[in-house]
Amino acid sequence: MRLVSLLAVSSLLCTAYILFFLPNGKPAEGRMSPAASEGEGPIRRYITYLNGGLSVLVGLNAFHFTGKEGVQDGFWLFCLLPSAVFSIVILMRRTMLSVDIDGLEKLKYPYKGA
Predict the structure, then answer these.
(1) How many other C-beta atoms lie within 10 A of the C-beta of residue 53?
(2) Phi, psi dihedrals of residue 27, rounded to the nearest 5°
(3) Which of 21, 19, 18, 5 is nearest to 81 (CA)?
(4) Distances from the Cα of 27 to the Cαs of 3, 30, 33, 72, 111, in angstroms?
(5) What is d(CA 9, CA 11) in angstroms, rounded to the nearest whole number?
(6) At 2, phi and psi to the nearest 5?
């Protein structure tokens, strides 16, 4: 149970790293993704895949802990939390890529002041 808790917390920390430090730009021409450039390290390249696998692993443990003797009642919800947070972060990052910023800039009100 301690190992699953440690994995869940590390998955949440990886999700926070992805949210704050990885760029959310569109892929440049000639490259697969912005994180796959040659100057980037392996952590930045593979952290989303590793965190996805880690959150799925912790989420599968949630089904193992439901109704088990000796485990606290809401522990399985704690195990599902990293999967839910990671899914929401990835979904919102992909949604933000589809927004056209130039079109929104044209709608800005041109006058300033009162």
Answers:
(1) 12
(2) -65, 140
(3) 5
(4) 37, 8, 5, 45, 34
(5) 5
(6) -70, -40
Q: Which two tokens stand for residue 90?
A: 């990835």
Closest CA to 24 of 32, 33, 37: 33
The model's pLDDT over 5-14, given as tens digits with 9 standing for 90+, comes to 999 999 999 9
The pLDDT score that the predictor gives to residue 34 is 52
Task: Please answer whether residues 44 and 22 qualify as being in contact, where contact means their C-beta atoms are separated by less than 8 angstroms.
Answer: yes
Identify how many contiguous H helices and E strands the chain contains and give both numbers: 4, 0
Contact between 83 and 55 under an 8 Å Cβ cutoff? The reply is yes
pTM exceeds 0.90 = no
3-state SS, residue 39: coil
Q: Tokens 């965190």, residue? A: 51
Q: Nearest Cα to 89, choosing from 48, 44, 50? A: 48
Cβ atoms < 10 Å from Cβ of 64: 12
